[in-house]
Write a structure and sequence with these properties.
single chain, 288 residues, four-stranded mixed β-sheet, 19% strand, globular
């Protein structure tokens, strides 16, 4: 009996020592707090928006760092259900559905029967803070996203604006076309288990949890992850908060998906979270 207790004591001490060593393990990234409890990986200052504007040549009459979006958006009252019907090759059919390839001709025939809506607005070229080469700011809820945009003289994009900026007038399933390309945008990374309780603890604990889970890249890192209008990283990398166009239900709609094995197409949306929800892969961009 005493031997068993002694062995158990040793095991507890060793386990505690290993846990302590794990806590002291160096972080993969250096994190900084932005505002109150919003987080960003530190990098040198990104490219000046005016420099990016000059290279991209799609600013139009918009403020620096924004893209001029105008055209006719394909309208449907059933989200992406009609588009899903023309998927020819499924990676997985169950939620979150991932389609490898859509039939271009069948989608052209389907959308030809749908109404169109004129759209004209400006949208940030990158995820906030909207600078090429900087990591997006994360762990921000819908209310905070809205306030940050308004403080900058902009507003949170509506879900329709975000969708149109991603898919263009052709209503592409992906910002780059009809076939899912795991190398175009940051998608299909292995899912990592998270500790929900970590987010109510000290900043050091939150940072370590974010560091463990993070698999994103700096904005604009992937040149092919670009919409027909020239907006970057609209699918993959991080989820982005938008404003619902519905008068009922939550105003907080997430678009684009993140780096994990999720839908990451232009039309789908996540409507299950309330406006207070903040998490390790959630950010936003602004419109005007």
């Amino acid at each position: 009996m005493r031997a068993s207790i002694a062995l158990l004591t040793i095991a507890i001490v060793v386990g505690a020592s290993l846990a302590g060593a794990e806590e002291k393990k160096p972080l993969n990234y250096e994190w900084r707090e932005v505002g109150t409890n919003h987080w960003q990986i530190k990098t040198p200052p990104g490219e000046a928006p005016e420099t990016t504007d000059a290279a991209e040549k799609n600013r139009g009459d918009c403020p620096a760092g924004m893209v001029d979006v105008k055209g006719k958006m394909v309208q449907t009252s059933i989200g992406d259900e009609l588009q899903k019907a023309v998927c020819t090759t499924w990676i997985n059919r169950q939620f979150p559905e991932r389609c490898a390839s859509f039939d271009k001709e069948k989608w052209a025939a389907a959308k030809a029967k749908l109404p169109k809506k004129d759209m004209r607005f400006c949208i940030d070229r990158f995820e906030y803070p909207n600078r090429k080469g900087e990591y997006p700011i994360i762990y921000v809820n819908w209310h905070e996203s809205k306030q940050i945009c308004e403080k900058a003289g902009k507003r949170l994009c509506t879900e329709d604006e975000w969708t149109f900026a991603c898919e263009g007038e052709e209503a592409l399933p992906y910002p780059y076309g009809y076939d899912r390309d795991k190398d175009a945008c940051l998608v299909d990374k292995s899912w990592r288990w998270f500790d929900q309780s970590a987010y109510g603890k000290t900043k050091d604990v939150i940072i370590r949890e974010l560091d463990k889970l993070w698999q994103g890249v700096p904005s604009g890192s992937l040149s092919k992850c670009k919409s027909p209008f020239g907006v970057y990283d609209m699918t993959g990398n991080i989820d982005e908060y938008t404003q619902s166009i519905s008068p009922t239900g939550s105003p907080a709609i997430l678009k684009g998906g993140y780096w994990g094995p999720v839908r990451t197409r232009c039309r789908p949306s996540t409507r299950a979270h309330g406006p207070e929800h903040a998490f390790y892969q959630q950010g936003f961009r602004c419109c005007k």
